[in-house]
Amino acid sequence: MVHRTQLIILNTTKVGERSLVLHALSPDWGRRSFITSVPKGGGMALFQPLGILDAEVVENPKSDLWRVHGLSAKYPLVSLRTSASKNAISLFMSEVLYRAVREGGREEGLFEWCERAILTLDALEGDYANYHLRFLLELAATLGFSPSWEDLAPFAGEHLARVRELLRADFGASLLVPLSGEVRNEIAELLLCYLSFHSESRIEARSLRVLRELFR
To answer: H or E segment at 55?
Structure first.
């Protein structure tokens, strides 16, 4: 059986010379891995983290690793790919999603929320240094944790007041909360600890070091 669907790429694993396993989110199956063939001579640009692809999935009852083909970019995401700072944020987002959402996990509305988050980052023209903090708070809510300042207090320490400000602010205002690069990084780390605690899996993001350097 063949299904038309969309995929959000979280990570990839190369298999041999011509095959690639796509670790992705889909609206139909949640977090799932698929296998595809890579055209000779490259074509890897299509599989960058957070790429949103149209795809044909061939369901195989004899294997958990279904094959996909007919892949094409649903959106160009030009800003996300050409801006070094947005690209770093997108790598962080994909890494967190890859570690926070387990294989087989299908949280209602997660794909649609992720798609909006990606397109929003791509469209922003400035003042997005706090975007990954807003992303973490919204991810927690989308996964069903519904963070409040009381829930976050055990993780927030000296940054509780700033975390409360981020929680209370609407989207636009949250991006304008004044934070130093060091404080922003520490808040990101405590939010990752909060997500790790509730998802019962250790969520580390090596890409956070890049954001620390970009948004000092």
So the answer is: strand 52-58
pLDDT digits (tens, 9 = 90+) for 40-87: 766 788 999 999 999 999 998 888 899 999 999 999 999 999 999 999
Cα 168 versus chain centre, distance: 23
* CA 117-97-81 angle, 5° bins: 55
CB burial string 16-27: b at 16+ within 10 A, e below: eeeebebbbbbb
Topology given in CATH for the domain delimited by 2-73? OB fold (Dihydrolipoamide Acetyltransferase, E2P) (2.40.50)
For the chain, the straight-line distance linking the first and the last C-alpha, in angstroms and rounded, comes to 51
pLDDT at 214 over 90: no
Helix (H, G, I), strand (E, B) or coil at 130: coil
- Under 8 Å between Cβ of 108 and 143: no
| The model's pTM | 0.94
